[in-house]
Design brief:
Layout: H1 16-36, E1 46-48, E2 53-55, E3 58-68, E4 71-73, E5 76-78, E6 83-93, E7 99-100, E8 105-107, E9 113-115, E10 132-133, E11 138-147, E12 152-157, E13 167-172
Parallel strand pairs: 1-13
Antiparallel strand pairs: 2-3, 3-6, 4-5, 6-11, 7-10, 8-9, 8-12, 12-13
Amino acid sequence: MFQYTRFQHTRITHRPLPSLCLALILVAAGVSLMGCTKKQTSEQINYQMGERIIAGPMVYNVVQTTWHTQLGDLFKIRVPERRFLQVTLAATNSGGKRVSLPFFTLEGPNREEYREVENGDGVENWFGLLRDIGPAETKQGNIVFDASLGSFRLRLTDGGEPGSEKFVWVEIPLRMDTDTTLTAPLPGAGADPSRP
């Protein structure tokens, strides 16, 4: 008469453990492979003179270089141990807080370092001793190194705290410009020989 049909309910059970294990294995493999690949970065650290140089919030432009055998005027001449290399540059703080720049460093081809001369006597338009640059402010002037005649790289900072700052380098090629410093005239030089 009445037939009773029993519907069988089947439960689909998911086993979370194998799926979770598989996901963890894939994540671990991906993380380990990331450590093996070279990190790609678009940050440039080597520049040429005249280029816009970006180092964190600082934007630099190294305009020109000149070699000098002496600095100063006729009555107060400064003579270097080697030669004076004068570098003209501009530094702009594009960040939102004040930046204090240290003295700069030149690096030679054999990794020798020349620190910037900390005395601006005889340097026209010296970059200065105090180098605090406010937001959206630009400072320009000349910095001087006592270095051997040659090609160098100028190391510039991003203005970060000492020990955590990042650097960029500007190629400073050897250029033999005319030394424009004054020299004392020799006695009798330029005198009219017909005059007693």
